[in-house]
Amino acid sequence: MLASPPTARNAVNAIRTARYPERTSRRLSPPQHMSSLLLDSQTVEKHGMANGFGSGSSLVPPNNISSRESSPPGPAHVQSQDFYFADGNVVFLVERTLYRIHRSVLSRNSPFFRNLFSIAQPADAKEAEGSSDEHPLHLPHILVEQFDAFLFTVYPSWRPITHTTEALINILCLATKWEFATTRAYATEMLTSRPLSPTLRVELARAYDIPAWLLASYVEMARMRTPLSDSEAERLGLPTVLRLGRAREAILRQRFKVALEKPKTDFFDIPIGRHIGCWQSMARSLYLVLKNAERGGGTDEDLVEEVLAASRRLQDEEPLCDSCSNSHLFRARCARWLDVDGDAVIVSSIFNLQ
């Protein structure tokens, strides 16, 4: 829905500044350090280094996000190699590149553009913005590579396109901004399987209203042995940092409870009476792992694997039976014993997630 009165001039301004409408009654506000869409250029560089993209990362969702500003209209314009169609009927200018594309393609996929193009043009339509190369519709604060990546998802292509993680974030940003539901769903699905840091995933989930990403990210951070960096804490915000602290303490208490208390029901998938010695050995291994973590030792690797490694070191003193020594059975039984799935219940309760 357009926030401006239905005039051609206001419509042009709307395409540059529109935000995706609220999808729920509870607004998910972007982090304070982020721009109106996601990140400023300084935060972008920190994200790139923190998430393996390198200091030269182009992880820069549009709108006030790059020191490389889009250039104002000028004589040195070039036509896009991929998206300048002879039969196109709307012209956009991104940096110094002209895009001549089809209103029908945009309108078919986006209610925002459908509403935009339904607004009456002035009497002298030849001079209307977007009508020609001489009068393009200028999109500031968007880079050519960002707009290209977005259009490759909007226009069907005979060649397979593999988008980088940075490109997918930019696609998500523009698809949300301009209400391309199918493109937004594609970017969300692809990013779900990409190895983003939990901090960045939380930022994206908040900025673009993707609540399904929040719980898994909070659980991952609550399980970490290492403290949050100052940068991560700032990006997440004080309320989230405090809740993560409570979640870590609750999970650690539950782990010690498992290590120190005899199971009240069958151990693993078999009666505990047959494996009381195995349980005692594994409980001691878990206790040693937890105490080492309390002292700042260990890593953020899989807890079950750490317990298995500790049990192997104790084999001479407290050997496991042949069945429990089987690494495949050990992992399955130990995961059930530790109730690692219960971590999500703890975190969900602390963060009031459904």
Automatic annotation (TrEMBL):
CDD domains, per the entry: BTB_POZ_ZBTB_KLHL-like
Database matches in SUPFAM superfamilies: POZ domain (SSF54695)
Limits of the BTB domain: 88-163
Top-level taxon of origin: Eukaryota
PROSITE patterns: BTB
UniProt feature, compositional bias: Polar residues: 56-70
Chain spans, region Disordered: 1-33, 50-78
Pfam families, sorted: BTB
Name of this chain's protein: BTB domain-containing protein
Species the sequence originates in: Serendipita vermifera MAFF 305830
